[in-house]
Amino acid sequence: MTDLADLTITEAGRRLRDGDVTAVDLFEAVRRRATMTEAELHAFLTFDADGAAEAAAEADAALARGQDLGPLHGIPVALKDNMVTRGVETTCSSRILAGYRPPYDATVVERLRSAGAVVVGKTNLDEFAMGSSTENSAYGPTRNPWDPGRVPGGSSGGSAASVAAGSSFAALGSDTGGSIRQPASLCGIVGMKPTYGLVSRYGLVAFASSLDQIGPLTRSVDDCVTVFEAIAGHDPSDATSYRGEVPDVRAALDGGLEGLRVGVVTEFSGEGFEPDVEANFRATLGAIERAGATVVDVSLPSAEYALSAYYLIAPAECSANLARFDGVRYGLRLDGSSVEQMMSATRRDGFGPEVTRRVLLGTYALSAGYYDAFYGQAQKVRTLVIRDFEAAYRQVDVLVTPTSPTTAFPLGARTDDPIAMYLSDICTIPSNLSGHPGISVPTGVDRSGLPIGFQILAPALGEPVMFRAAKAVEALAGFDARPALASSEGAA
Amino acid sequence: MTWEAVIGIETHIELLTASKMFCGCPADVNAEPNTNVCPVCLGLPGALPVPNERAIEWTVMLGLALDCAIAPRSLFHRKNYFYADMPKNYQISQYDIPLCADGHLDVETDDGVRRVGLTRVHLEEDTGKSTHLGESGRIHGSEASLVDFNRAGVPLMEAVTEPDIRTPEEARAYAAELRAIVLALGVSDAKLEEGSMRFDANVSLRRAGTEAFGTKVEVKNMNSLRSLQRALAHEIDRQGRILDDGGTIDQETRHWDEERGRTEPGRSKEESSDYRYFPEPDLVPVEVRSDVVDRLRAGLPELPAARRGRFVDSGVDAGNARHLASDDLLAGIFESALDAGADARAAANWLTGEVTAWMRREEAEPAALSGEHLAELLALIDDGDVSATAAKTVLEGVLSGEGPPRTVAEARDLLQISDEGALVDAVDEALAASPDERERLAGGDMKLVGFFVGQVMRATGGKADPRRVSELLRERA
Amino acid sequence: MPVDIDIAKVARLARIGLDAEELERYGAQLGDILEHAARVQALDTDDVPPTAHPLPMVNALRSDEIEPSLDREEVLDQAPDRDGPYFKVPAFLEDA
């Protein structure tokens, strides 16, 4: 019999409403799984057992009263620790926020709670979401449930590892350059970045404001749709929040691939792409074509510049976004004989090397005399990337790429080579620059048994066709492998 | 060597909106410390700004009052620098596309009207306030500082002039006129001493008759119109002496020390600032549509210059017109006094003279005085019912809330004796009381008219009309 | 393109107090990254407008209404140092 912790949200919700299980049962299953895996995986920074147990009991009481808040009612979910939670420590994996208890909840947290979800805790990430391996955490790395010697990807590595390991049913991540999709790919789950503006960023600790977007990590496309529907929608507290209707992603969800035009981005293959990743990608394309879709090659000529533009825009925005961590109002403070020295010392000790690197890079890229050559030029490249996408979407309904050029890599393999690490995000970054939605669906494993993800991209507000294609690809791939979890209960 | 000063002024003006620029906290800087704060204005992680629509409209109104072009599409930028009372360590401000640009303000000076160009009027957020602990209470030599973030995020307009100003007097006239406009618009209380309106001036000197600019010095910390004028006069003098001695001017920021009457250099030789402006990614562009501009333009109140012109046209001299136009309450009394038939010049004289003196003395508003009251008082004087001296006492009574002028004059027994018989009796009594003087008067010594008028006025307690008394004396001598 | 970086000035602007060894290390790393990032300069973008936002939106504003502020104690509770109702910081060296 399947452990409750391995159910999808859809199955768990059915059994909850059938009276087979309670929300407390679901939470207890997740808690047991966390106890079993956490010592090794370290997916969580904070596991709020008391708060979650209380929320689960309340969810059961509400259902008993006949109050059903919808498909997330009683479902244990995890939050990446860059979404603020009132009274619950929120550190962004940074020493500079050690012990910080925010006085308010992020909009997505409020939305999840009002949808009845049980928030189980805060997951590990690369410090301030800067990284692709979850190794840049001041509190230690997260490990991949498929192979604890390897990284889970990042920066939402804790969320991805937790969902893959069953210590939550779903988790929220944030995606600035691929930080949801890449770890989803490396952990064999579904991860989705919505159209920029569809999900409120209020309460998401900003990395790069014009690129950041919150999205779900789940074990099925159906679950992904469920979480997306719960968190999407206009928020007057976020001036960049989309004011129109959230597109209806249910209506055409089961429409299949028949008649869809699928574009293969030719730039994302060859050098740097592992043969097993390419083989799986080609095999999936074949299945897509046989299922009735038209598959054509499409070029995004400016894609090769997207990574460079991203590594100017994101650090520039982060250099300002992270200026507020100064030891005055919250978080870490080191002594200093003047307020200026106090700030300099606090920021030196409070930020890890990758954050320091990007803050310095962004400061430089914005400084007098360099703005036009770097930041200004990068913003123009962004326009070219958007034009490329628009041209492509005149020919096809969705674009597809491997999510990541490689499967999960060993811990430490890329920590000394920032540029190699940055290349992990080459397929995901263009859609952050354009603000378009993207999803990663697991479609197989490599020769070492490590999961491979397949990325589907759609135009702005193209979530309906993106989810429709994703669901069909999920069915074609029939990927139902689960990591073989080593029990670390003794250690926990 | 003759030097010409080149002056530009940057003015920061706190808006009187109910809420702050980017959040719903009250824009009340005088509340208990750190009570008007929220995640947004405290710069807590995750918080996002949403602009206050009224603050945008008010800035456009000031732009229109200064004949600026209103940008159809304007942007907010981040201005990056670290300062402990600035929560995000960047200020949301405007950079290359401000809401308002290319305006001007005509300023009246002793040398006639000067046109001062306005480069821009933009909108930004204020910082918090720091109190420096230690002996001096000043930033220099303090041991620690206490920070209150109530002011952080209060909407702040910044109006920047072209370097068109040439003298401290012009600078003061510009500042006074800008303040009068802001008050007329009702968008700020514009209190210089409390910092809700703050002036910074850029000053450089060049040889008279040349075009190129000299090295400029920014002068800060002038918290009255008078100190603005004094600070500029001092700074121009200081720079002139250095240049006369063959020295060079350092580009720096200097602070005006009101007590010592001089400008002092800032403490740090700061690296030339590099604010790393870039478009604020948390905000989207602001489009002020032409119908909104039209609505705001139509809703502009009468501006001080127009009001002054109207007052001058009604017969008031320029100085009094300026005074009246700068005070809404006095201007209102003046206008309703004219409606009630008062003479413009006389009404203006009373308001800018006695009424203003009373306001200063009592530190009170002339709330009890209506235009009808003023018109009635002027009529009483004209009709000889009260003397000019007694009228001042009557006015005080009216201002103190004792009622209309005639009621006050009656109650205080200040009405002049209008009964001719009583006046004749009083004159006869005075003549009888001083027979020697009466002889000399009768003998043609007209100097004694004054003596007897004085006697009559004393005997009647000042209620006799001295002109009529004088006539009667001449008849009887 | 070789990139010339005054890393000490950049660190000062960013208010990160690095020592000489750290400055040198970060300076070298930034040089490498910028050399890669400078590829954007190869594109001809003379007639291309910059994109600051992925979605074209304007006028996301709020009406001038007061909303509840935070509880002062909850806020000051997070402060590294306080003095009564104030946040407390070491002395300012520089003027604003």
Describe the structure.
The complex is a heterotrimer of chains A (about 500), B (about 475) and C (about 100). Chain A has helices at about 10-20, 25-40, 50-65, 105-115, 155-165, 180-185, 220-230, 275-290, 305-320, 340-350, 355-365, 370-395, 420, 430-435, 465-475, and strands at about 45, 75-80, 120-125, 170-175, 190-195, 215-220, 260-265, 295-300, 400, 440-445, 450-455. Chain A has about 500 residues and is of the alpha/beta class. An 11-stranded mixed β-sheet of chain A has the order 1-3-2-4-6-5-10-11-9-7-8, with helices on both faces. In chain A, helix 9 crosses helix 12 (about 370-395). Mean pLDDT of chain A is about 95; it is low at about 490. By secondary structure, chain B is α+β, with helices and mostly antiparallel strands. Chain C is built from 3 helices and 2 strands; from the N terminus they run H-H-H-E-E. The mean pLDDT of chain C is about 90. Chains in contact: A-B, A-C, B-C. The interface between B and C is large, with 61 and 37 residues.
Radius of gyration of chain A: 21 Å
Distance between the termini of chain A: 25 Å
β-sheet strand percentage of chain A: 5-15%
Low-confidence segments of chain A, given as residue ranges, are 488-492
- Calculate the mean pLDDT score of chain B and round it: 92
Helix content of chain A: 25-40%
Biggest sheet details of chain A: 11 strands, mixed
Counting H and I runs of at least 4 residues, what is the number of helices of chain B? 15
Q: How many distinct helices of chain A?
A: 15
Taken in chain order, the helices and strands of chain A follow as HHEHEHEHEHEEHEHEHHHHEHHEEH
Number of DSSP strand runs of chain B: 14
Mean pLDDT of chain A, nearest integer?
96
- Portion of residues in helices of chain B? 25-40%
Largest interface summary = A-C, 74 and 53 residues
Rg result of chain B:
30 Å
Beta-strand proportion of chain B: 15-25%
Structural class of chain A: alpha/beta
